[in-house]
Design a protein that fits this description.
The chain is α/β, with parallel strands linked by helices. The chain has 24 helices and 15 strands. The strands form five sheets. It has a seven-stranded parallel sheet, with helices on both faces. A two-stranded parallel sheet has the order 6-15. It is a multi-pass membrane protein.
Length: about 575
Amino acid sequence: MAMVDHQSKTCVVLGGRSFAGRCLVVRLLKLGNWIVRVAGSAHSLQLDPSDYDYDLPLNRALSTGHASYFHVDVRSRRSVINAIEGSSVVFYMDEDDSCNLDFYSGYTVIVQGVKNVISACRERKVKRLIYQSTADVVLDGLHDIHNGNERLLYATKFKNVYSELKAQAEALVLHANDMDGLVTCALRPANVFGPGDNHLLPSLVDVAKSTWAKFIIGSDGSMSDYTYVENVAHALICAEAALCSRMVVVSGKVFFITNLEPMGSWEFSLRILEGLGYFRPMVKLPPVVVNLIVYLIKWMHSNTNSRNISKSVSVHNVVQLMSHTTTFDCSAAQQHLEYSPVVSLDEGITSTIESFSHLAKGSASTIYDVLNEQSKMEELLGGGEVAAILLWRDERKSFVCFCGVVSVFYWFFLSERTIVSSIALMLLVITIFLYGHASFSDANPQMSTQLSRYLRFEVSETGMKSCVKVIANIWNEVGRVTRSLAQGKDWNLFSKVVASLYLFKLLIVNSFPNSLGVALAFSFIMFFVYEQYEEEIDGVIGILMELVRQLMVFVMSHLPLISALHKSTTRSSMR
């Protein structure tokens, strides 16, 4: 093993395997004057040999002794002490899954975790603690922020639980400044993105894959600041250097970090999505309408005990981002931390698109997901050619079939001709077409060959057997039902048959053309609509069924005869 330079400083990167933590670790190692302790919640360090940008430098540093890994549970003070013992600097950022925790779990990890880190740093005489917070601590999701600076107060109503907990943790870090020789500061990066992002970019892709992809949500004039992840790592290192050289103006302070290039919210999103091959939406949709729909969807999921609300949350996050202007003044970081972006916004967007090629439209992974995911409607329709047409898998083919069905419906039912005359006229048109086609077949033999391929009115033996088998099964089922009715014992079956026949008479016999038109429209529209909003429609049906059930229980319990029978049954069972 190579000897470690004794002039190197030792630092700990808590959350070193997180999105921003990996960039910070590599950047510290490239400086060459740091011994880096990577600390994370995983029990062992899992490296990806194919990840040349992040894991390959770390793997080399581990072999030379310039890096080491510690398993740390921030909820345990002793676990934190073991990792930071003998270090001079602690960079602290949360694990990637912290934003998905419930309030109690999030509090123990984010807030109580910060308390344990501060206590351990004070006890072990760590000199500097730099905390990665978020610009979301000043956002309430209701008001715009134009060029906001560090004088902004915390939001009075946070847009989510994660932002509220981060605000509490940030305040604890700043309050701990100059205690037992520990100096602290916090950074607030805005809308961090880049390779490895598992929040902002996946949310945009989720929306692009959903039905919301056809709409422009929010205002074209909304602006936002975005921060490439490499610039966040650079800012953390700048903050550590500033705490050493300009401690008075930096310690106990908080700084906004951005790319210094505010961009239209939709411009940023569309550049990402178009780079991944998704279509540009054309229809504008007011954000208040989208918010109302999303809140309704979330309410339905919560009332039907559904666990799959990720897409609703993704849409909600994107709506919040697109609906408001949130730009920040980064001059304090430029002046006191000597921070300036090392990667421009254009370069960051380009590298991010390249790293998310596996999520691009038409990529192998997305095609595999589509092929292996079969909706409930597709299963109901058999998953064949009919399902592909009715669910609009191929829009051109489905549109042609729809126009053909509408034409046939008009020919037979809306043209004010009788069925016999319509059939006769259609046969006349077909006859004229075939005879006319024969006149041109000599000039173009290929056309004749193609037509003859479609005019093979042959039925295979297998097809005929299948058809006869279906007819036989239907006949046998009708016979079984008839025998059951003749016995006069199955009242449930009797009521079903009577109701079915009455509905057939009411809907089919009395208004056959209208019923057929509704059925055709239902086939080409409702199957597709249900597939797009399957969970939401199931949620509404579930709520309605529960309301009906509760109403039935209420009515049955208040009927005098039913109540008397229930009481007598209860008394007899007690005896």
